[in-house]
Amino acid sequence: MKLCNNCVLIIEDDQNICDECKSYIPDSINWDEMENKFFDVYNQFKGKGEKYDFIVPFTGGKDSSYVLYYMAKKLNARVLALTWDNGLIREKSWENIYRITRNLNVDLHIVKWDHVKLRKLFHATFKRFNKVCYCPFFVFLASSEVAITKKIPAIITGFSEGQREMNHSFSLASQEIEKERFFQTTSLWETFFGIALKVYDDESISKEILNEFFEKINHIKNNLPEDIMYPHFLPLSNYVRWTSFAGLEQTLKEIGWQNPAKTVSHSSCMIEPIKGYIESKHNLNELRAEISYMIRCGGITRDMGIEELEKMSFNTNKPPENLNMFCNFIFIDENQFLKYLTAEKTEYPTPELQQKAEQLKKGMVNSISWIMGVSQHKAKFY
Ligand SMILES: [Zn+2]
């Protein structure tokens, strides 16, 4: 296996540089102008909420910490930090969450789900789809619920440029679009989780788990307030650049941030090395692409990227150090883990269900890009 001389993508033996690096043109975005656009957005929402005008989804990782710092300290915005407990947030990230909100004097709202049901959901989705990372949806679910009930008009997310893999200039979506996003995304994921949960023969178990995550949002959907404001999801990285890791670390130290995992990305959640391992086993290259993007736009060096892949258990056939923890978390042992990892993913109860599941997987990719603000105005689901 040969790596690109410039980034960490895999290339053919007769290549030296990957196609992405060859065709990469540094963007010519005028970031001062973009930031001014963000001030316009800010002014548009300022004072429009009841008690808060903005939610910042907050994991204690570097990107969301920066967004919270930017909103609370630089703009002095009326902001609510929101954390959703996926059961796998690192202890040091929780410390960041409490310390930083205290230092910035920002209110913190924590959305919690029943831990056993959460773990059973992870079990089902891993067994059925080998998927283990649901934060892009959890952030949407938790933020939408809180934004609609507390009348908060905008959600400023911390998806980084690397995660979004490019910059996407867009204008603010209309309420019609946000409404569509809200309804489509929630029902899409409810169906997706519903299919995964069929791994439990007892239907009452799957129903109970599904209710834990969707009862509240469905209640909101059925009883929408008359003056409903569908929250706008905006990634700050669309307007403000913070790609340089070293520079960022300095700023974040001032508000008490400590690196939870000694990594340059995805530091807040224990799932990352597990995800990396699963991806590498399936020859998927999501993380590779993300890190390569960070290298290309100068955020980190190639050596840091290679080290990062190792830390994420990506480049190796060596299982991650915390595999045992994860197996316990989803009620299996390491043998079962490997069995589920290598099993044919065609064991669906019916061919119709399998077809639906395949369509849904595509829809989910689209819904995640939509939540991240990669494709903003055209929602193409399945
Ligand atoms: Zn490359």
Account of the 3D structure:
The structure is a single chain. The protein is an alpha/beta fold. It has one domain. The chain contains 16 helices and 7 strands. It has helices spanning about 20, 30-45, 60-75, 90-105, 115-130, 135-150, 160-165, 175-195, 205-220, 245-255, 270-280, 285-295, 300-310, 325-330, 335-340, 350-370, and strands at about 1-5, 10, 55, 80-85, 105-110, 155, 230-235. A 5-stranded parallel β-sheet has the order 5-4-3-6-7, sandwiched between helices. β4, α4 and β5 form a beta-alpha-beta unit. The mean pLDDT is about 90. The structure holds zinc ion. The site of zinc ion has 9 residues, from α1.
Gist of the model:
The protein contains 16 helices and 7 strands. The protein has helices at 19-22, 31-45, 62-74, 91-104, 115-129, 135-149, 161-164, 175-196, 203-222, 245-253, 272-281, 286-296, 302-311, 323-329, 334-342, 351-372, and strands at residues 2-3, 10-11, 54-57, 79-85, 107-112, 154-157, 232-235.
